[in-house]
Automatic annotation (TrEMBL):
This is Phosphatidic acid phosphatase type 2/haloperoxidase domain-containing protein. It comes from the Bacteria. Residues 14-42 are annotated as: Disordered. SMART domains: acidPPc. It comes from Candidatus Rhodobacter oscarellae. SUPFAM superfamilies: Acid phosphatase/Vanadium-dependent haloperoxidase. Coiled coil: none annotated. InterPro entries: PAP2/HPO (IPR000326), PAP2/HPO_sf (IPR036938).
Length: 394
């Protein structure tokens, strides 16, 4: 069961699945490609020999047949509910979920800024700092490089695997929390699609481009340094996971320093330690990730219109007194060129979006019926409300 690399490995078949999957998730493309390309039968993968013998068995069993029907299948197939996709295999579900989410979520260039929107309503606008800003941030890259020996194993493993680190906080496996994992990977793949567009809009040089003395401990990626993709992905996962398990917003979780956000911050900082990112990259990526995660929750819970009305966050350098004529509140955020990224900054920069869980399951005529159903199934895996135990006297 692989939800990670199915998007790139699915269509190519068994032969090219492994190659195309390696870019975003090592090994995941192989499983996805085999399932949709060559075809997997009840007892194993397809082959020319199996196809031939199936034909021989057909000819031996069927005899004469003139095309008359013998069965009465369900019509429409399996379920009349648009959100029910359990009849599909993993690869087909991944394709369908990603296709449905492609419409309401967009990342576009507007006035030189990268703007994330949900169903046409802008949620986050990101400006790119100037070159002098990034040069000042080099001092942090130098300072963090002293931790490379301590973090090298984490850094390498986190190139392709973030989910295992969140699975170390809450038990995430295919038996106990199958739908939760499917939801998290759906949000993760959405973050990937959004971040690559944001990176292309911003196109900022990497630390190695500013100094020959950076010498990263891993291969520097070819795309933009800003915003950080790992920070975007990690904070998207953290936000969705925290909401599913607690019902709390990202801002509430950040204020409490909830464990998923602490893990996401560690993952983001590891990229600066490695020498491939500046702290401001992580700041923008974290803000983008939290916004994506909250937007996924709003879309799933049927609260996307209410969510969009709660405000637009504008990240600029320096912050400006932006106003809007649409009546939507503006939240201005900025980041100092001499500053390091941390959760204090992110807590202050995130809007506390009031998107509470409905008492009853949301209707599946929402912006994404498939996402709505998947979110509800993930909530069912929460089992019970979390009640932290306080040790000691009250």
């Amino acid at each position: 069961m692989s939800y990670m690399g199915a998007g790139s490995g699915a269509g190519s078949g068994a032969g090219s699945g492994a190659g195309s999957g390696a870019g975003s998730g090592a090994g995941s493309g192989a499983g996805s490609g085999a399932g949709s390309g060559a075809g997997v039968h009840s007892g194993g993968p397809g082959s020319g020999a199996l196809s031939y013998t199936l034909t021989m068995a057909h000819d031996g069993l069927v005899g004469s047949w003139f095309g008359e029907g013998t069965e009465n299948p369900d019509f429409p197939l399996f379920s009349a509910e648009d959100g029910d996709i359990d009849y599909l295999d993993t690869v087909s579900r991944v394709r369908l979920m990603d296709s449905e989410l492609a419409a309401p979520f967009s990342m576009k260039k507007e006035g030189g800024k990268a703007v994330l929107s949900l169903d046409g309503a802008p949620l986050l606008s990101i400006s790119r700092p100037d070159q002098a800003f990034f040069e000042e941030q080099l001092s942090w890259v130098r300072a963090y490089s002293d931790l490379r020996v301590d973090r090298i194993d984490e850094i390498n493993l986190q190139i392709n695997d973030l989910m295992s680190y969140f699975g170390g906080i809450f038990l995430l496996n295919g038996a106990r929390r199958k739908k939760t994992l499917e939801l998290l990977y759906t949000a993760y793949r959405l973050a990937l699609r959004v971040e690559v567009l944001a990176k292309h809009i911003c196109r900022a040089p990497r630390p190695i481009d500013y100094s020959l003395k950076v010498q990263p401990t891993i291969q520097t990626p070819d795309h933009s340094s800003y915003p950080s993709g790992h920070a975007t992905e990690a904070f998207t996962i953290a936000t969705v996971l925290h909401r599913v398990m607690t019902g709390e917003s990202a801002q509430v979780g950040l204020k409490a320093r909830a464990m998923p956000f602490k893990m996401a911050a560690r993952i983001a900082v590891n990229r600066t330690i490695a020498g491939v990112h500046f702290p401001v990259d992580s700041a923008a990526g974290a803000l983008l990730g939290c916004t994506i995660g909250e937007a996924v929750a709003a879309a799933a819970l049927g609260k996307h219109e209410e969510f969009a009305k709660q405000g637009l966050t504008i990240l600029e350098f320096p912050a400006s007194d932006s106003v809007t004529g649409s009546g939507v509140p503006i939240h201005n955020a900025t980041f100092d060129s001499k500053a390091d990224f941390d959760l204090d900054w992110l807590e202050k920069s995130c809007i506390d979006r009031k998107t509470s869980e409905p008492k009853n399951r949301p209707k599946e005529d929402s912006v994404s019926p498939i996402l709505t159903r998947l979110w509800c199934e993930a909530l069912d895996e929460r089992r019970t409300e979390r009640k932290p135990r306080h040790v000691g006297k009250k």
